[in-house]
Amino acid sequence: MQVWRWHSTMLTSILHRATGAALYVGALILAAWAVTLAAGPEAYGTFKALLGSPLGKLVMFGLTVSAFYHLSNGVRHLFWDAGAGFDLKTANASGVVVFAFTAVATVAVWIIAGLTGAL
Fold first, then answer.
1. Which of 61, 80, 66, 63 minimizes the C-alpha distance to 16?
2. Which of 22, 27, 42, 87 could form a disulfide bond with 66, CB atoms 3.0-4.6 angstroms apart?
3. How far apart (Å, rounded) are the C-alpha atoms in residues 94 and 96?
């Protein structure tokens, strides 16, 4: 039996898979948006009310986090595919950069949305 110790690259790998799955849910929400838009003003109004509710905003915030995390970790994987950044120090540092970018980009998008009246 082996003993595993948690490390940052393990966490980033698991979160990359989880955010990929969450983005599938986001694609379904996007499809529902298109269907309700085509169905008419009443259906679209109901959809907007659902996404404008606190639960809807929470889901959209989670999807924003998922999109930025998956994007930044995907770029990290592109560097790995090129053979760069595999040493432990660089891998750990790039993981921190992924988390930092995710947080900053998500907060920036939601601040901009709030300032423009999109919330």
1. 66
2. 22
3. 5
User: What digits encode the pLDDT tens for the residues 65-76?
Assistant: 999 999 999 999
Q: Tell me, letter by letter, the H, E, C secondary structure of the chain.
A: CCCCCCCHHHHHHHHHHHHHHHHHHHHHHHHHHHHHHHHCHHHHHHHHHHHHCHHHHHHHHHHHHHHHHHHHHHHHHHHHHCCCCCCHHHHHHHHHHHHHHHHHHHHHHHHHHHHCCCC
Q: Check if the beta carbon of residue 46 is closer than 8 Å to that of residue 76.
A: no
Q: Which residue has the tokens 């109004």?
A: 45
Query: Rounded to whole angstroms, how far apart are CA atoms 25 and 11?
Result: 21
Residues in the chain where the model's pLDDT stays below 70: 1
What confidence score (pLDDT) does residue 94 get?
94
pLDDT for the residue numbered 6: 80
Interhelix angle 8-39/88-115, rounded to 10 degrees, is 30
Gyration radius from the chain CA atoms: 18
